[in-house]
């Protein structure tokens, strides 16, 4: 088993007009996704939804004092809106599960082993 | 009975050509580590050179696989951490897999093909990795075949192998429900390997080693998936293309288009096999579409391409090709797999239908000129040049030939286009102003 991070990137315009019912519906889809992961014999190890990128602050370190600025580190049309950590058999299972995430764009990345005695990534 | 060094060297070389992917794939199943398996497979071939002079084994593939696996197991035992560290090629290895000889899975090379062509790898990397691991080409040969520097080829291969290990790309044949989509990538990569050899950018028109490897791969896929029509179709397509290879280049090395080829120089036996495979695959596709009441798709992408190639090779001459049918096949391709290149080929075929409206075809080609995908595609100006020449507009045709010549990197194609340009009738005094 290996752990994968699913990063959910979506347009944030949705937040501007979302109704309470649509919000509930979206939460329900995420609950269903988590159930599908367990049903596949994989495991949701963690995950959170993030507030819109307008609430983000970025700290840039260079020479001198770290600089605090408004906004996300990378400005794109689609912003990181949340993530899951899923433990899956292999990349194929992870990708099959990532297809079920209720989000428009999902980046799947293996989680690095940082346990004691682990070697740096090759 | 000993064998001479020359005979042994030839046998080992032949075994490398024929059995490399089997030996490597079976070893991967034990090691679950591509690099380690590659090292051990290579070492097995080196040992064959030393050992076979005493006696050449009856079953070279079995001998090589056994040696490679033993080497791998020795190394794994020495570095027991390796197995803990690498959960990469997740296929469960049963106890029999360590036995050595009789348990080799005939599907091993296929697993390896699907690993190399995993959609999570970049297309460039899929092709390079397939050439390296399945075809057994050296990094230098991969670079030469793909016209990239050796450093680029090495970087692509290394990066892809790292991703396979780190991201946990499994070493397995996809399940039935995902096979169709995954198979398409594999077939596309095999076709790309063939194309890289068929229209090599460089002084030579073709690279026989690459086209040969692609055909071997297609044969492997057919052997391993006899019930799938698409591998069958791809093999048919490649065979029909290959069978015309000799007639494609004139004695002075110039490209000869299908229209001008001496058909008596075609390899009749290879063509016949291609045609019969194409026909079978096409029927299979139509049958399955009928059986499911149109639910399952009809002929696939490669079945249609093979059908077009079949129409060409079974026609008595270029002029008497069934152009109406050819256009119909392109139409079917445009429905399922629309692309500007298919549209271009369709327009070119349409221009050859007896009584075709050439002005209308020219309009279609003009519209295609707006497609960014075709901006640097030499065949578009070449097709426009041909239609313009037939419409009696030689000056415009000449300009299009110039554009086509500038866009192709292949020497034989350049010579061909220059000859076509030179054969245009010259206009006197009434040249069309720029």
Automatic annotation (TrEMBL), chain A:
Domain YCII-related: 15-113
PANTHER family: BLL7171 PROTEIN (PTHR35174:SF3), BLL7171 PROTEIN-RELATED (PTHR35174)
UniProt similarity note: Belongs to the YciI family.
Protein's UniProt name: YCII-related domain-containing protein
Organism for this UniProt entry: Kribbella italica
TrEMBL record, chain B:
UniProt KW rRNA processing keyword: no
Residue ranges of every copy of the RNA polymerase sigma-70 region domain listed in the record: 28-80
Classification via InterPro entries: DUF6596, RNA_pol_sigma-70_dom, RNA_pol_sigma70_r2, RNA_pol_sigma70_r4_t2, RNA_pol_sigma_r2, RNA_pol_sigma_r3/r4-like, WH-like_DNA-bd_sf
Domain RNA polymerase sigma factor 70 region 4 type: 114-164
DUF6596 domain boundaries: 182-281
Domain of life: Bacteria
GO molecular function annotations of the record: DNA binding; sigma factor activity
An example Gene Ontology biological process: DNA-templated transcription initiation
Pfam family for this entry, one: DUF6596
Keyword annotations: Sigma factor, Transcription, Transcription regulation
Family recorded in the similarity comment: Belongs to the sigma-70 factor family. ECF subfamily.
PANTHER family: BLL6612 PROTEIN, BLL6612 PROTEIN-RELATED
Protein name: RNA polymerase sigma-70 factor (ECF subfamily)
UniProt organism field: Kribbella italica
